[in-house]
Amino acid sequence: MKAIAFVTQKGGSGKSTLCINLAIAAMEAGSSVCILEMDRQATITDWAEHRDGEGPEVAQIDATQLDDVVDRLRDYDYDYVFIDTPGVDSPGTLSAIRAADLCVIPCRPTPADLRAFKPTLAAIYRLEKRFAFVLNQTPPRSYRNRDAADGLAVLGVLPDVNIVMRNDHQDAIGMGQGVTEFNPQGQAAREVRKLWGWIEKRTNFNNQNKGQALTNVKVA
Ligand SMILES: Nc1ncnc2c1ncn2[C@@H]1O[C@H](COP(=O)(O)OP(=O)(O)O)[C@@H](O)[C@H]1O
Ligand SMILES: [Mg+2]
């Protein structure tokens, strides 16, 4: 099992949206995924409540529970646990980074977002974790994307796909779906699938086991 944490203290940059869409894309690609939500805003729990489709299992936990829950999940046969974190640097974010095999840092191509991930990145460096930026909510084409991508590529790894600002992301979440379910042929779906392919390779992990661990792991 690999843990992927979605981290950056900037609210609204797309942690929860990417977490949901990548979880669905990963499941469609044959992996089993569960989601631990550490944000009291409960974006993902709300999404799951609107969901008719199968999986992923979602549990809300706090920072004090994370290590223990991730440890117990390792006894089950999930391929991935995705960890969504709040929009502030908190003990929760730190423990999510510590538990992660890969940290995904969503970032809009704006000066505020490009500044905001720095404390998160410092923690990731300190804990010597692998990480990747994802440029999210980008305009379809803009010098801003190129400038932001150049800047991020200097600091670390950047996938070969940006997640463009598209209505599908908002509409899909409203319906309890991922963009790849909501509009499978759409551009948003194509971008998310490509991003998942990149992340899957980077976590170098692709077994086909399925799991239902959270129903067995009691989360207080
Ligand atoms: N690529 C995108 N295109 C359009 N809207 C997006 C995209 N990514 C995120 N959003 C929207 O931006 C808002 C904030 O995203 P969210 O994932 O909740 O951020 P965070 O979890 O980092 O606070 C939400 O309303 C979401 O629907
Ligand atoms: Mg969120």
TrEMBL record:
Pfam families: CbiA. It comes from the Bacteria. Residues 4-166 form the CobQ/CobB/MinD/ParA nucleotide binding domain. Signal peptide: none annotated. PANTHER family: COBQ_COBB_MIND_PARA NUCLEOTIDE BINDING DOMAIN-CONTAINING PROTEIN, P-LOOP CONTAINING NUCLEOSIDE TRIPHOSPHATE HYDROLASE. This is Chromosome partitioning protein. It comes from Saliniramus fredricksonii.
